[in-house]
Design brief:
- The two termini are 14 Å apart.
- Helix 1 crosses helix 4.
- The protein is of the alpha/beta class.
- The protein has a single domain, classed as Rossmann fold (3-Layer(aba) Sandwich).
- Helix content is 23%, strand content 24%.
């Protein structure tokens, strides 16, 4: 599976871009999955539901299954956060895995940047960032793509990972 990351500071446009890229790249006939890193505690379950009650009782893993989808929740219970390669290894094979976040991991990445975030560029210190998608001109020795030009960004990513 090919892996390509989308990174950037909060409100830089990462999630919207990933959403548009999944639509665009899937429409081209490729299979795409995503991994999203969260820096905060999150829960995909709801208090009171059976699966929530199973986890609260101490289950290490709980799987939910229906005719439309299934989900596997694993409780770390003090174990270290899984590394990106370990997470990718658990996924079904697809042509491309788009990774949102995991900015400190060494996989190839594109950085999203918006003028309104007023933050420095991650690319200044991260050699795994190969391009910038921005809504403003930036002085950087990397390819710069328009943050809203989903087709051009998809072309760039597919070419970079060898799917074009």
């Amino acid at each position: 599976m090919k892996i390509f990351g989308i990174v950037g500071w909060k409100n830089s446009g990462k999630t919207g871009l990933v959403e548009r890229l999944v639509t665009e790249i899937s429409a081209r006939g490729f299979t795409v999955s995503t991994i999203k890193h969260a820096h905060h505690e999150f829960d995909v379950d709801q208090p009171g539901r059976d699966s929530y009650r199973h986890r609260e009782a101490g289950a290490r893993q709980v799987m939910l299954a229906s005719a439309q989808r299934w989900a596997l929740m694993s409780e770390l219970k003090g174990a270290p956060e899984p590394e990106l390669p370990d997470l990718v290894a658990r996924m079904d094979p697809v042509d491309l895995v788009l990774v949102e976040g995991f900015k400190r991991t060494g996989h190839i990445k594109l950085e999203c940047s918006r003028a309104v975030t007023e933050k420095g560029l991650l690319a200044d210190t991260d050699p795994s960032i190969c391009a910038l998608a921005s809504d403003t001109e930036v002085s950087l020795d990397l390819p710069r793509l328009d943050l809203d030009d989903t087709v051009a960004i998809a072309d760039f990513i597919l070419s970079k990972v060898g799917l074009a």
